[in-house]
Design a protein that fits this description.
mainly beta, five-stranded antiparallel beta sheet, Methylamine Dehydrogenase, Chain H, Cytochrome Bc1 Complex, Chain D, domain 2, globular, four-stranded antiparallel beta sheet
């Protein structure tokens, strides 16, 4: 009996020990990643709608910083807080996992890029297959189900809808004649689409995690800014074949991600923002001379978010981790002014107009509910216009006296659009296009008579307003229309929209 009792005690003890061990086992970081992170950052950590989660990308963040982002989210981004869904041990395990090297090192060079290229025979066309004005079309990116809609900018009737690559980002770019549009996705795909025939004509994967694209002044070259690998890829706009790959590093050879690439039409060049290096790159796209020659402009700090004055003589840049902006003279390469701009200015969404004979620029902030207005003559802050909350976008048109701003990053005011008088710099009207739903990204038609607003929800809409009376004209159901782009305004570089 005693022996039996001891055996029973041993079995109970073993069961208890195994149960205790299982309950206190180290979290399975790989399983946690697939369950909570893969949908946005890719199952292989190479990036998708969110950035790649690899040591090279997260080096400055570190494990402690990664834990903080996982726990609390990140302001001004789609990264949500997981503190209510994961315990401390799971958060620590995830942070260690994403800051450690992956099992397979990411490789995406010329061979992989060229092997991904797909060409579709292009149908012959001497005019568009529709009767609408081809220069007054809107290209609408629907992020809810990854589609693109083409909308007539006169009747506001949808003309065509097609499936896009996953998570388009950075804004489409148009050839100077407005016929072709190029899209880029977070996971590196570049798509060429013919707006006359309404057909995709070519695709290529230029990177594993890409930020945006730019088209050269003559429309012959497409530049792709990559986070992973650290490259700037230049493609032929004709067939998306690879023309040049630049490994991006500072003067000392330290690699850097590319935050963005921009077309600078008066300069006939690409201007490149480096995420991790205190430099600006300018790459010539002129037909004469050595192609794609590189000019480095040394800075005192990295700048990864840019605004250009209308003449492209100066760039106003900021780093998202900072609280100031720096003005760089692109001809001399000198830093000529510094402005205090706390609250994370979103300079890439800045616009400009003429006020009292001076060109001014204005930018929203991703953390503060205000619009900062700057005189580009002397680069002085002249006004701060309060808005209900922080937002992503500010938009206007040469033919309207108003600028429209969202507060979509504010939990309480995400459904409000603020309309600002560009001369008095005062708030004149607040709209609530869809109460309780995130509303943002205003764009104007070719004439400036109508403003289109996005309700950025899965069951969202594109709402057309009279830009004078602010009355609703039409509402088109859309699946999270995260951006809309008017062909004419884009190819003429309207001061009221981003470039």
């Amino acid at each position: 009996m005693q022996r039996r009792s001891r055996m029973l005690e041993n079995c109970v003890g073993l069961i208890f020990a195994l149960t205790f061990s299982a309950a206190h086992a180290a979290p399975d970081a790989a399983a946690l990643y697939q369950a909570h992170c893969a949908a946005c950052h890719g199952s292989d950590r190479f990036g998708a709608i969110g950035p790649a989660l690899l040591p090279d990308n997260l080096g400055r963040l570190g494990k402690a910083g990664a834990q903080a982002v996982i726990r609390d989210g990140r302001a001004g981004t789609k990264m949500r807080a997981f503190k209510s869904a994961l315990d401390d041990d799971s958060i620590k395990a995830l942070a260690a996992y994403v800051t450690a090297p992956p099992a397979t090192a990411p490789v995406w060079g010329r061979a992989q890029i060229e092997a991904s290229r797909v060409l579709t025979p292009e149908p012959a066309a001497t005019k568009p297959v529709y009767s609408a004005d081809p220069l007054n079309l809107f290209v609408v990116v629907e992020g809810g189900d990854h589609h693109v809609s083409i909308v007539d900018g006169d009747s506001f009737a949808p003309l065509y809808r097609f499936a896009s690559r996953f998570a388009l980002h950075g804004g489409p770019k148009f050839t100077p004649d407005g016929r072709y549009v190029f899209f880029s996705s977070r996971d590196g795909w570049v798509t060429k689409f013919d707006l006359w025939t309404l057909k995709v004509t070519a695709e290529i994967r230029a990177g594993l995690n890409s930020r945006n694209i730019a088209l050269s002044k003559d429309g012959r070259h497409v530049a792709v800014a990559n986070y992973l690998p650290d490259t700037l890829v230049i493609l032929s706009s004709v067939d998306l074949s690879v023309e040049k790959i630049l490994d991006v590093a500072d003067r000392n050879g330290k690699a850097s991600r590319v935050s963005a690439v921009y077309q600078a039409p008066p300069r006939d060049s690409f201007v490149v923002a480096l995420k991790d290096a205190p430099e600006i790159w300018e790459i010539s796209t002129a037909a004469q001379g050595e192609p794609f020659t590189l000019r480095r402009i040394a800075l005192t700090t990295p700048l990864d978010d840019f605004f250009f004055d209308p003449a492209y003589l100066h760039v106003l840049g900021a780093h998202q981790a900072g609280d100031k902006a720096i003005v760089v003279d692109l001809d001399s390469g000198e830093e000529v002014a510094t402005l205090p701009l706390p609250g994370m200015p979103h300079l890439g969404s800045g616009i400009s107009w003429t006020r009292d004979g001076h060109v001014v620029m204005a930018t929203p902030h991703l953390k503060d509910g205000r619009i900062s207005v700057i005189d580009t003559t002397d680069w002085k802050l002249i006004a701060e216009i309060p808005t209900p909350g922080p937002g992503y976008f500010l938009r206007s048109h040469d033919n309207t006296p108003y600028a429209w701003a969202d507060s979509s990053l504010s939990p309480q005011h995400r459904d409000e659009i603020s309309i600002i008088d560009k001369q008095s710099l005062t708030l004149v009207r607040t709209l609530k296009p869809a109460p309780g739903k995130a509303t943002a990204h205003v764009e104007f038609d070719r004439s400036g008579k109508h403003a289109l607003v996005s309700v950025m929800e899965k069951d969202g809409a594109l709402i057309v307003y009279d830009a004078v009376t602010f009355q609703e004209i039409k509402r088109l159901p859309m699946s999270k229309p995260i951006g809309k782009y008017n062909v004419y305004n884009k190819i003429t570089f309207s001061q009221g929209t981003s470039h």
